[in-house]
Amino acid sequence: MRMFIILLFLFYFITGLRGDWANTNWAKLKKKIAIQYSTNISAWLDRGFVTNLTPVGDGTYVVKLYLTPGETYNFIFFAETDDNPPPGLNPNTTYYDQVPTSGWIPVSTNSNATVIFTNYAWYDGIGTSKDARRVIKVPEVSDGQAVWVFNNFSDAPKPPDSVEAIPGNGEIILNWTPAKGQWNMEEVNVLAGGSYLIYVSNDPATNFAFVTNLPSNVTSFTHRGLVNGQTYYYIIVASDAYTGSEGTVFENKKSELPPPDGGAEYQAFATPNSTIPVYFKVEKINWEVVKQKKYLVWLTPAQFDGRFFPWKTPGRIVKCVLKKH
User: Fold this and answer.
1) 252-288: per-residue pLDDT in tens?
2) What is the DSSP annotation of 208-248?
3) Bridge-partner residues for 126, per DSSP?
4) Residue ranges covered by each domain of the chain
5) Which fold, 4-151?
6) CATH of domain 163-321
7) pLDDT by residue (tens digit) across 126-147?
8) What is the pTM of this model?
9) Same fold for the domain at 4-151 and the one at 163-321?
């Protein structure tokens, strides 16, 4: 049977949001992949094919595998620490890829990330227990041709589960919980060189201005020099080892509330017979709806039109009123 070479890349694929290099703490971790034939048994370290990923620069890792055209495989990534791990991580510990059970993974026939196939790699529930894994159905292409599958460890990090704002005299204290992944555990790619980005606005229907970028081991910040009697809205974003290494990703962002479906697909379905992506810019915020959505919002760079920008950043919003003194 013909065999097929597939290249799996591990890097932040979202164009315009990823950095040109990853934090050095992330580079200290050894990266592995486990791949399993079919979707009947989920890939893991003790079964299937397990191998190391090779670093090739700029925070990118690659592995070359020989797979069979037309067949389906599931796979998962791992990150391992040694005796001297980065701050926040345990020594000699294996951390695994926290992925969702739905969504597409970009696939191409060239290394320049020009997406050709949009339905050959995806997230799914595998086996009888429906374990979340990455899946690829190897496409039928010409002999010797390579297919490139672009991945980011744990996909994009989720924002903190909760954020609180404590008003003071001309200042607000922000506290938040650590960012967790799809499997409700702290994200290793945030802990190893990631950060928290804070944005603020007096009106959530306008742009949010960047305030600061804090290391991933910090979960509190005091914003001083504020005006008593004003209302402030804050959004906190968790950034992984790629975007977290560069400081602010975008100086200003605009919020879109309520989040479309409150989900990660960034779209609402407009008709009963077809799926049409619709992006909403909300000019009058319904705070009760925001509460129902657990304060989850989606951010778009200020210079882009949110109706058409697909790579929105999830954040957690909080509202705080400073009383007059």
Assistant:
1) 555 544 443 444 333 332 233 333 334 445 556 678 8
2) EEEEEEEETT--EEEEESPPTT-EEEEEEEEE-TTGGGSS-
3) 131
4) 4-151, 163-321
5) Immunoglobulin-like (2.60.40)
6) 2.60.40.10
7) 999 999 999 999 887 776 677 7
8) 0.76
9) yes
